[in-house]
Structures
1.
Amino acid sequence: MVTKSKTATFFTIFLVIIFVVGFSYFHWLDFIEKPLISIVDWSLKPVNSIKAYFKKTDQPLTTDDRNVLNELKQKQKNNKTNIQILTEENIELKKQLNFFAKNNFEHIGAIVLSRTVNPLATTIMIDKGDKDGVEIDNPVVVSEGILIGKVVKVEDNRSAVRLINDNTSAIGATVMNNDRSIGLVEGGYGLGVRMNYIPQNEVVTPGDVVISSGLSDAIPRGLVIGTIEVVDKQPHEPFQQAVITPATDLGYINLVSVIIQKK
Amino acid sequence: MLCNFYIFIMLKSILQTIFYFFLIIIVFVLSLYSSYLLPYPFENINLVIIFLIIVLGLYGSGNIVWAAFLFGVLMDLYSELPFGIFTFSLTISFLLVYWLYYEFFANKSIWAVATIAVVSVVLFRIFYTIFIIFNGSKIKLTLFTYYGWELLFTTILTFSLYFVLEKIFIRFKLLK
């Protein structure tokens, strides 16, 4: 390759990339992309089970717990992890059903396939897409109405969801204090979630619950985002900021519901 | 007889291509697992670049550019960004890295491999950052913390794995 003209090689590869990107844009490569996605998605199925296993073993146990656990491990060696996952999914689904029974939202349940490949973005892939009625900007919730993010990319049978701790995520929010302070909840490359642009004269205290304000497109008011952990108030600045603890562990999400527009 | 020989060569070539294709998919799936399961900051290890650099270091083949292209396509299929950003960034980076390797670092020393690992991560992230800026993404300083972790862990792991694999390959005479 190096013996040929480098410029010719560069332009050949450049043209191949342009053709592939163009063909993909017009869906002419679906016959290759879909089998590839099926193979990779199939390979990713155990990822949540593995994550669940490690999450379980992270919890501190007493000596009695360990003894009981060892006995259980021996008796239920083969199906323990499956039961645990099913139980967690059951609890999660009950919570989501409970939330949607109280609220008049149209929704679709979805399974998390994986995080997207880009470690610099905090996004996840879910198994519902355009064919299921998912649209860009649809909010995504877990448990009893906890907002985790919104849909940013939709394909036929899957979608990408940008989580609230992603650097480019920005969602209008309200603090449940006396002033009902409004601000913007923004993420920072998975390192945390902050609420910015809170008016300086309003009183925000750690422990206050933060919910969606309804001012962002397609995100209804009242979805829980998290609680205020620390308030950063500088007298010379027009706004105060707050660090928010998300209401759910954003690194461990298996089942979600997408709130869709009523037709 | 000659015809049978050509058929054998062709079949061997097809089987090799299929093998490399599935090897690339396996490495890609492993990279997804590592980014999902490993805790911060280890989630930033770039297994795709590690694999490509080690293969380049061991075999020095120009096919590494096409492997990078296929990895880029797979990454784009699993990215929230517009299709093409990863394909372009990874392929062009590895084309430049291959030229650099061929011209200056073809002695296959472990230091040469470590150097091209650093260069490939830096080039890949430069192209990637330019594209995401054009895509309208905001760039925060914390992004460079992630780049730093990725560079550190990817280089260390490439260095260590190459050190071990080179010895194994030489021991079992797997290198041409």
2.
Amino acid sequence: MALGLLPGMVLKLVRKAPLGDPLAIEFGGQVVSLRLAEAENLIVDVAADCPIQRPRQP
Amino acid sequence: MSSLEAGLLVALVGNPNTGKSTLFNALTGLRQRVGNYPGVTVARKSGTCDLGDGRKAELIDLPGLYSLAAASPDEQVVIDALSGNIAGDRRPDAVLLVVDATNLLRNLFLASQVAELGLPVALVLNQADVAKEQGLRIDTGLLSRRLGGVPVVLTSAWKGEGIAEVRRGLGEALTRRAPMKRVVWPTDIAGALADVTEAASADTGKAITAADAQRLLFDTNPSTADRLGWTAERREKPLRAARDRVRNSGYNPMAAEPLVHYAWLRTALEGVVSEGHGKAGRTAAVDRLLLHRVLGPLLFLGIMLGFFASVFWLAKFPMDWIQTAVDWTKGVVAPPLSAYPMLQSLVADGILGGVGAFLVFLPQILILFLFIGILEDSGYMARAAFIMDRLFSWCGLNGKSFVPMLSGFACAIPSLLSTRTIEDPKARLATAFVVPFMSCSARFPVYALMCAAFIGPLYGPGWESLVMVGMHCVGLVFAVPTAFVLTRLVLKVKPQPFVLELPRYQMPKPRDVVWRMWQNAAEFVSKAGTVIFAITIVVWALSYFPRDASVAERVRAAHPTESAEKVQARVQAAYVEQSYMGRFGKTIQPIFDPLGFDWKITVGVLASFPAREVIVSTLGVTYSVGEGAEADSQDLRRAMQDAKWSEGPRAGRPIFSLAAVLALMVFFALCSQCGPTIATLAQETGGWKWAAGSFVYMTTLAWLVSMAVYQVVIRLT
């Protein structure tokens, strides 16, 4: 939250680390590394223009 | 401390990766003092900043942080410093807030939290050059008006641009004492804050500031309540009621603070930043390469191996020079003292040995911190942690544990200092605890001697190299489960969030890198250096006294035909045998008997507690080869190969059987035999508790594993 990850924000998964965890996520003009354990707490909708159209369980 | 004097005191506050330290160095021109905050291992850096109008202010560089919600010791220090709750420091007269001009919204969150403290503020929008490149135009006049008239300055500290304006802005903030405009809380949250203020002040009898009330209401961390003396029983009910009030107004109490701040900041920033056409940064392109699925880890390995090899090999030359210089000084100082053998030995072996013992670490420390500075300031360190995190997270460490553990293979001392880059205090502690297990370069001579004298001649060079490599892995094999047990069972760490910004790549500024390297080295010499020196003197005394001249005469009488050199070696061996160290070694030899160590090895083990590499020269003395024996000494190898048990059930059999050789190497791989490491561990963990724990744990583990190795191998061979 202090990094400005707020409800309603658009997130972009930039890449995964070589071992699949953590994730590099871009929001608000910055790239932040989040472990899967933390990313699981995020509830996301897949954007309409997202190349992967697979519903994800929160 | 000078901040208690009448002069002006200014705190430098900002997010990580904003160029805060570069700005600090530019403002103070390296007129800096480094100390520690009482009770925590957070460095207190301060310097004198000229305000350009004849006034001077003391500037304190506080640790970088994203939010005032205290989670780590670093963050707690910032809050305490800004509230004037640090012993020896008064409350600052103003805050110099550094923000990244390319990401104002996120950076100003901390600024608007600081505004709640009611201190005069000057705002520095740093990295203006990058913002300009990206096509961002910032209306500083408008931003200043929106924030209540606080001075707002655009700078590029890296290029040294805008520094005079910062001085002027800070001078203005100190003169006008205008605080920054505060966030407007929705009615119910304002009401909840008022409730908390009232309840806390009624219970504690203390004045509760607005910032205190916010920390009490919004944080689950009890540090503010503890400081105010608001007990858990008393605060539980009013806090729950206040949080319910926030919740009923439609806000999650744990998220209300950033939500309200960010909403307020969005309004404040409207029209301040206009985006034009600019180049996209190179960072994304570089990351495509450096964080590539396959290439990323390979490049990472390459960079780290290069890094490690440099620390290891580059340091060799200055280390040799230091050794040569110490030996040369001995050669100059010792002969004139030959009339006073005790004084001669004290100066040559005690004092000069002690000075040499810690000076020899300096090259590695300097080189390690040079590389760490480059890796951190360039932005690659965060990527390294990103790549490695998965390998470390399962045992309670994180990606940032990698560099200290790798450099532990060169030397534990600089590695322990480098654990400061780990923010999470428990992961930092656990990393520091396992670093001494890494097979440092001082273990190398021990393995080299044993392998060359026994494994090589008996089993061939193939086995010799295999055992060498294997010995370097022994520590690692025990370090990982140790970290797991320590974090899960002893520290009881719940898996900690590891949120890490992957900052923009940037060219490191040589002045910053060199300056940090120098500060770390100076701290090591002044703190650990004195302890190392003291330990060396004590061990010297134990192996020198008592010294009865009749011992020498008896040896000379017993070997009348031998060369003077040979006799001198025998005299030395006899002296050590009857010294306190030798007597103690003989007394406790039964403890090491299950490991296959005779009293001579036991004395060697004891004498090498301050520094494990001492075993080689101590064996040289006890096996009458003479002082100054090195790992490649043929005489020492032969003496050890010929050594036989003189009594007991093993009489007549070689002391250095395969079992004993392996046991001895394993013992040295695991045992805590390094005074400097213990001293540095105490320094870095803020007390002797963990240092003592590490010593007891490693030494016990070494004894157990070594005993197991001896008992198994002796039965198989």
3.
Amino acid sequence: MDMQPPPALVQVQQDEVPPELPVDPAPIEVNVSKYIPESATAVTVVVTLTPPTGQAVIYAAGHEREGTLFKGPRSIDEVKLFGPIIYVKLYGAASFDIQYTNYRQRE
Amino acid sequence: MRNKLLSGTACAALCLFSFSGAARSATLDDVMARLDKIEKENAELRAKVRSLSAARPVAAAPAAVPVDPAKFKGNPVLHAAVAPSPAPPPGPTIGGIPVKAGPLGPLIDNTTVTLYGSIDVSGDIFNPSVFDQGTKLGVASNISSFGVRVRHNLAPYGWDGMAVVAQLESQVDIASFPTERAAFGTRDSFLGMESPWGSIKAGKSDTPYKKSTAAMDPFTRTLGDYNSIMGNTGGDNRAEFDLRLPHAIWYESPIFSGFQFSALFSPGQNYAKDNADYAYGDYFQCTGSSARGSGSNFPNSSGSIPGNIGGNGCTDGSFGNAYSAAVTYKNGPFNAIAAYELHEGVNRHGDDNLQLNVNAPGAPGPIFLPDGTQILTGVHNEWAAKIGGGYRFNDGLGDVQLSAFYEWIRREVTAIEQPFNERSRDGVFASATQYIGKWAISGSYAHAFKTPGNPACLSFNNVNAGVACVADGTPQPIVQIGQFQANRFDDSANQYAVGARYYFNDWASWYVVGSVITQGPGAHYCLGASGHGYQVCSRDAGNDTIGGATIKAATTGMTFNF
């Protein structure tokens, strides 16, 4: 007579530690208002990433889903603005440099 | 013996039965206990997993690390710890197509296509104080637009930090009958290249001169738009120095420590030496005028004459080469601008009627004012320059933005032409906006100083407005029955505007604006020039221009930007 409990339950019982979840990088806050007008609706930036295989997502506060992806080593693109604060998330990059090249205002 | 064997067997069977019953009872209890324990543990684990799953975004996004930009020289903003994730999360998709920030996903590799637009519709009430006009209601579409912006990243092809950019933008007259002035590409449209050393673009664009102070006007697009006076040389419904120039090429520098420089060149490419014709590539549209508007020479538009190329009908401000440049500076709460624009060979023979027309010889002839002087306006350069600045601070209620600039506008005429020169004057503008939560409350003031002269007679504000000046070359009374010689009277003007705007969110707002313009008898400024869906001018039903009318308007509308 088999007196063992069902294997599936035993398996769950043994897995005390939940699987490790992937970690999202900490967003780095950047205030663009020093050089970019408060009325700007978008800023064009050149982003340089180190190491060059890294990537960065830059987005306005509260608009992460509208972020812009920058790939290393250096790329240019536009970031929508909804206020003076933008956030930078680095993926595989240790550091970054932002150069403002232009901005756009509504007529 | 047999009985013993039977009884022994029975005893063994009974014992076995009784033992097995006891054993079964003990096993079931254990199992039940284990099952209970497992169920409890399972429930605890399930609860843990759920709580971890629910808390994952919060746990995964630690507090942002502020970076003080003051620590760094120039533009660089930098530095972060190594991020552990191997790649950014996949973006949202629509129908399997990647979508980036509202823009459509790549149609071509490394290309972002963005659809965007701006809608501004208002309801207006206005009174030009003209004897046969009264108070009117109106609905206007105010510089509503729709566009497609494309950015093709060249970095993957070995051109680090560079991109090809293109834009196709159209005016959308959602409140008026459709015309070709709202055709695709009527607004800023271009193809160009962006790089860390700046951008070069070609096509059509608002001039650097125009863009340098655009943000200072809290009532742009409305009947309180500052272009009623600022950048407006003639004091009518067209702002000559608030232009979108066609067939142009321009450069925009990167931002160095808050400074940015931009310059634009638009070749005249005119068929006529005196710029009296259309530019190559333009048809029924004189340079310097709005589509179908005053001075465009579009068939049956105001002042137009018959003829296509060779008709020499561009005599109301058409010019040749145009140059525009601006330097802007921003450092924290302080900003400053300096801008300059030159229009070469501006043809104003429409005022003196001396345009030579090879196709209609003998047609032109001199025009005299009541005092006996012959009007001379000719073809001359016109330029404008402005300097200004702004400051932003917090007064406890919220941010306050102050802005002001001073403008010089000149038409380089000879001394004999000065009495007819209404294109040279100074102007000044100031505005203030108080932000309180989602509200912005603004006020502005613009002043046009006197000009040296005027080439026309203006009408009195009465039923005789259509009775023209008597002017046959001999001195006459400068004030006559229906009209008067404008260059004998003050033509300075003041514009006042107040308003409020409520921001529902980052995309939608509602506004209300009131504006009034007061002017000397020799002036004829309008409200809503170069911004609103239409202009409110001091014209009577016969299109006679009433001099010195006080024009009042109020407008309320909504904007939605995407």
